[in-house]
């Protein structure tokens, strides 16, 4: 009963096949970075119960979350690197293999295994080349001996020092998990190489004061991304309490049903990372004060609050990073008062949408997150939140991030 309640929001997705996830066994090859750990945590939240990982190390914080989120979850961790063909027997009973490594030897060995044994190989990794940083994801199936394969082979043949970024790793793991879900549910994985690239970001300068409005799935992953990026002056705002149906995507609330989301999220991050974030258990409305903040994240789930966030950010000249998700898509809209006058609410036409709502649908004066039994899943929230944090880092670094629209049903995705 608890399992079905925890997974309720994804079980509402049309055509969803939860048993296909629960009965699968997935092999993962990782490296000495955070990517495999992020994938394991998200897979557990999705309801995948068996994962075998060959990697020299896993992040204990992310693995602890994975184990507490899903009590049926079984992780087999073999410490080491994949360096010889004989090691392929470890994955003999796996449905497919996820290659999150950063050395060419294993990339080639796994693609050869996929070709020879007709086993799908999902390849995902972060990269840094020629002043750019980004990631690539490609799903190899026998018959896809395409030129794109040349772009997913790592430069170094053997394990070596490589670029690692926890925010990009979070996005990559979300996309790889989306591809995993598609394979297990007999849906079409992407036929294209999925890629994302922007200029190299330097280390954060100073500590901007950041307000995150909304402490649900987007807020959780935005908080994690900001903490991993070195930001410490964070305040989370949300009036709502944790419900069991939140737990398929709000990964830090595994033991917090009934508590206030904002306070719990702040406490969890402070305990896990030794930070000093703050919480406001309140609705964001026209009386909310944002004057003391430098950057505002819009992680709410209703248009009314989003309108007020847009108006206040424009009035006070604040950077606003607005994110929204559905079960198969996400959007990230950037408002930087230095560069433009169009707010997310104006760009998305939210005023017209709200005016057409009846009073019974939503009480206009209450600008708070409301409980709606809409389908929702971890991947789009994780990916969208990651792009939101990356956009913030770009702004602080002096770059101009573009608005991003993610569509999980499209081969190119972005």
Structure, explained:
With 414 residues, the protein is α/β, with parallel strands linked by helices. It has two domains: 198 residues, 3-Layer(aba) Sandwich (Rossmann fold); 198 residues, NAD(P)-binding Rossmann-like Domain (Rossmann fold, 3-Layer(aba) Sandwich). 33% of the residues lie in helices and 18% in strands. The protein is built from 13 helices and 14 strands. Strands 3-2-1-4-5-6-7 form a seven-stranded mixed sheet. A seven-stranded mixed sheet has the order 10-9-8-11-12-13-14, sandwiched between helices. Helix 8 links the parallel strand 8 and strand 9. Helix 4 packs parallel to helix 5, helix 4 packs across helix 7 and helix 7 packs antiparallel against helix 13. The radius of gyration is 21 Å and the shape is globular.
Q: Separation of termini? A: 37 Å
Major sheet size, sense and barrel closure? 7 strands, mixed
Radius of gyration: 21 Å
Beta strands, count: 14
Number of helices: 13
CATH topology group of the largest domain: Rossmann fold
> Strand percentage, roughly?
15-25%
């Amino acid at each position: 009963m608890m399992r079905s309640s925890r997974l309720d929001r994804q079980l509402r997705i049309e055509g969803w096949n939860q048993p296909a996830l629960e009965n699968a066994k997935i092999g993962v090859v990782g490296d000495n970075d955070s990517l495999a750990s992020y994938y394991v945590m998200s897979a557990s939240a999705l309801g995948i119960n068996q994962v075998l990982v060959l990697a020299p190390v896993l992040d204990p914080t992310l693995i602890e979350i994975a184990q507490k989120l899903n009590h049926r979850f079984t992780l087999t961790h073999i410490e080491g690197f994949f360096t010889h063909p004989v090691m392929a027997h470890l994955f003999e009973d796996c449905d497919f293999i996820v290659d999150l490594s950063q050395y060419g030897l294993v990339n080639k060995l796994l693609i050869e295994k996929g070709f020879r044994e007709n086993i799908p190989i999902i390849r995902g990794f972060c990269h840094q080349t020629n002043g750019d940083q980004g990631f690539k994801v490609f799903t190899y199936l026998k018959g896809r001996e395409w030129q794109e394969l040349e772009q997913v082979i790592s430069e170094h043949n053997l394990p070596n020092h490589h670029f690692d970024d926890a925010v990009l790793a979070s996005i990559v793991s979300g996309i790889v998990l989306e591809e995993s879900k598609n394979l297990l549910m007999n849906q079409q994985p992407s036929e294209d190489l999925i890629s994302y690239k922007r200029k190299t970001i330097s280390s954060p300068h100073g500590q901007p004061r950041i307000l995150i409005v909304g402490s649900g799935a987007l807020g959780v992953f935005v908080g994690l991304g900001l903490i991993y990026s070195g930001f410490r002056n964070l305040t989370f705002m949300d009036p709502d309490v944790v419900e069991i149906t939140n737990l398929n995507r709000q990964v830090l609330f595994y033991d917090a049903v009934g508590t206030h989301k904002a306070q719990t999220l702040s406490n969890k991050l402070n305990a896990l990372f030794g930070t000093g974030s703050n919480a406001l258990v309140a609705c964001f409305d026209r009386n909310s004060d944002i004057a003391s903040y430098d950057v505002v994240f819009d992680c709410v789930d209703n248009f009314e609050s989003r309108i007020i966030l847009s108006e206040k950010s424009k009035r006070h000249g604040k950077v606003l990073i607005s994110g929204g998700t559905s079960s198969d898509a996400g959007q990230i809209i950037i408002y930087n008062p230095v560069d433009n006058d169009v707010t997310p609410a104006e760009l998305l036409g939210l005023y017209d949408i709200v005016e057409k709502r009846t009073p019974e649908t939503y009480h206009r004066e209450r600008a708070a997150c409301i409980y709606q039994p809409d389908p929702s899943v971890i991947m789009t929230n994780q990916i969208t939140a990651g792009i939101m944090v990356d956009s913030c880092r770009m702004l602080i670094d002096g770059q101009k991030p573009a608005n991003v629209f993610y569509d999980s049903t499209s081969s190119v995705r972005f």
